[in-house]
Amino acid sequence: MVNLTNEQIILEEIEHLAGRGKIHDSAGLTQQVVGSMLTSEDAKSTLEMLISTTQQRLNATEFYLDLMKHTDFAFYLSDYYSLSTEQKPVIDLHGSNLIVQIKLLNNDTFRLILFVILNGFFSNLSGTEDCVTKIINIVYDLFEKRYNGLNICQKLGKEIPTGKLTRHLQAFYAVNTKGDQDKKGSPFAISTEIRNQLIHDQIDDLLTFSAPAPLSLTPSNAKFHFQDSYFPDSPDSEETEITTFCINVFKETVKFIDGCYKLIHGKLRSSGKLPV
């Protein structure tokens, strides 16, 4: 289970503001979020639902990441393996709450398993980002008052960061020197591009892999890599390896979301209200 240190305090603050009648009805950006103006109770329940959904998606993302960590990538490269070796689980995950074992009788099926894992990981990762964006749209009066009717990502492409949350978001929605969204250089942007390509293309279009000499082939040195085209020029081979990249982007996402919660909580405490 993913632990967000600031999740509970923001839920408590929303409950506190609701109890004091400090959630004010307004159309604002919430028309884009839920399709109609929210009432105070609607805003409270919607925020609580989005925060809970964000947690669920993070937990699902972590589940797929655990599957990836326990995958024997050497299986796909090893035509010379004995039958007894091939009967061993290609994925063997033993946790405190569940046991997952997957056995494959031929390495052609490996691509399907890897696609399921990557698709599950990046779909849920992007889902958490969408949920947090909705939370910000509802909570943060900066966007209600100044950016009414505009997408946060579009606006940040031209906005000079002023407030703490704005700067925090601009790191998430990476922009280049021209003020356009940068598809490279940010793990968030790279993961979005990979998710989009997973929707439309074969897994072979996303990955490449190293093939060490057969006698030295082990799970530890049989590696798959994302294509270099997703990364800045001359990427380090370590950062393109799929497990390493997914671990890093997951950690960055958890850190980003927890940071958002902290900044939002600070804003709610200082303003003493929840303007939606």
Provide a compact summary of the structure:
The chain is built from twelve helices and six strands. By secondary structure, it is mostly helical.
Structural account:
With 276 residues, this protein is mainly alpha-helical. 57% of the residues lie in helices and 7% in strands. The protein has twelve helices and six strands. The strands form three sheets. Strands 1-6 form a two-stranded parallel sheet. Helix 1 (7-19) runs parallel beside helix 12 and helix 6 crosses helix 10 (187-200). The two termini are 30 Å apart. The model is unreliable at 26-36, 80-84 and 212-217 (pLDDT under 50).
Strand content: 5-15%
Unreliable parts: 26-36, 80-84, 212-217
- Distance from first to last alpha carbon: 30 Å
Strand order of the largest sheet: 1-6
List the helices and strands and how they pair.
Elements: H1 7-19, E1 23-24, H2 30-34, H3 40-69, H4 74-77, H5 83-86, E2 91-94, E3 99-102, H6 108-139, H7 141-146, H8 152-156, H9 164-172, H10 187-200, E4 207-209, E5 224-226, H11 237-240, H12 242-271, E6 274-275
Parallel strand pairs: 1-6
Antiparallel strand pairs: 2-3, 4-5
Helix pairs in contact: 1-3, 1-12, 3-6, 3-12, 6-10, 6-12, 9-12
